[in-house]
Amino acid sequence: MKMLNDICLPVLKLALPLMLIQICQASLGVMNTMVAGRYHYIDLAGIGLGSNIWTPVFILFTGILYVLVPKISAMQQGTSQEIGVLIQQGKKVACLLSIFGFLLIHLLAFLSPSIIENPQVALITQQYLHFVAFAVPGLVYMTLFRFISEGHCTLKPIMLTYAILLLCDVLLCIVLVNGIGFVPEMGGAGTGLATAISAYIACFCMYKFVAKAVPELKMNSTSVSFSESLALLKQGLPIGITLVLQILALATLAFFASQLGAKTIAAHQIAINIAMLLIMIPIAISSATTIRISYFSAIDQQQGKMATGFAVAVITLIYVSLTSGLLFGFSAQITALFSQDAEVLHIANALMVFVAIFLIFDALQTVASGVLRGLQQFMQPLFVILFCYWFIIIPMSYFMGVKGWLLTEANVNVIWMVLTGGICLAAILLTLQSYRYLTRHSQRDLLTDPS
């Protein structure tokens, strides 16, 4: 028991700041959804689909820039000049991503009326995306500064910035959506403008906070070639692709739900937002797990790796048991925060059962992926997510949930049933893989132990 406490406490200590950051980040989308949903369910559906269009693009960019974290961490014993060169490369990558993202999201905005059946929803989505496109450069550079700070193990600037971002975004959303005083009423599209304004406020704050802790951020004398920056981009690309596969799958499911009516889209979006907010804690635990497993691997301590794997499994199960219980017990009160439409709330309440079960298995597969990354096994999570989402969940959701095959009628509940079943399979496969690799390392250490 003492050893378990010794393992749990460092993981929790490392995970806690990451939890706060993840919750703030996830809360941005949730608050936008709540403000738009209380305005009108059509606006909720419009920004929900718009979010599903642009979020995968930004997640891809986030994954690409994340490569800076381990690189900067590995350079802590190096010179300021070396770190400065890497930061300059990151700035060039951020510039390229900003331009590409700005143009791509504008293009997706123009295309949205052709892929969304409901004309009212399509118009709101289009307006929302045009505003969000202007937010992309601010969000990309804010993410760059965040990962530079994480690489230096300095999390306070990130927590302060995300708190400011959340406050600004919520206040601006309320004002721009509903219209106050001389500010005109913009409806759901106003959340996009709120995102754009708050992104640049947060970017400025993040730069100021991080620059105080990381002097190399202000170094501009170092010049780097385009080829060096491109090499950094290529190194981060696999991370981005791995992250975006899951997000794209969820976005695809949202478009499947959109074919079942505007109120179904709104209810589905409520369920997705609640699920994504609650999964932020397991994501933080997974990141802390990767760091701890990597540490024990570096010092070749097998007992520490096994104890860490067991400890995070216990922590995760306690968390999902509590949160799933809350979803079962207070689903009506939770969904009422997002909408006032009785039919939307009826559909959303029915989905809460699936969200609660989905959360259990998604948390387990997230933490199991963290164990595998700590053991330097990067491809297993990618293959499992690719198989479960794109070969099982997506096809079955379309044919059963949208087309109504093998059922009396199409139903969004079926989409969530398939999603939950697919994630259950992913959790089983990844948990077995993580256990297999942990025990394989243990057996290898026993065979090579000279005693």
Automatic annotation (TrEMBL):
InterPro entries per the UniProt record, alphabetical: MATE_fam (IPR002528), MATE_MdtK (IPR050222)
Going by the UniProt record, its keywords in alphabetical order are: Membrane, Transmembrane, Transmembrane helix, Transport
Residue stretches spanning the membrane: 53-72, 93-116, 128-148, 160-183, 189-210, 237-258, 270-295, 307-332, 344-361, 382-402, 414-432
Q: Which Pfam families match?
A: MatE (PF01554)
Gene Ontology CC, one term = plasma membrane
Molecular function terms from GO: antiporter activity; xenobiotic transmembrane transporter activity
Q: What is this protein called?
A: MATE family multidrug resistance protein
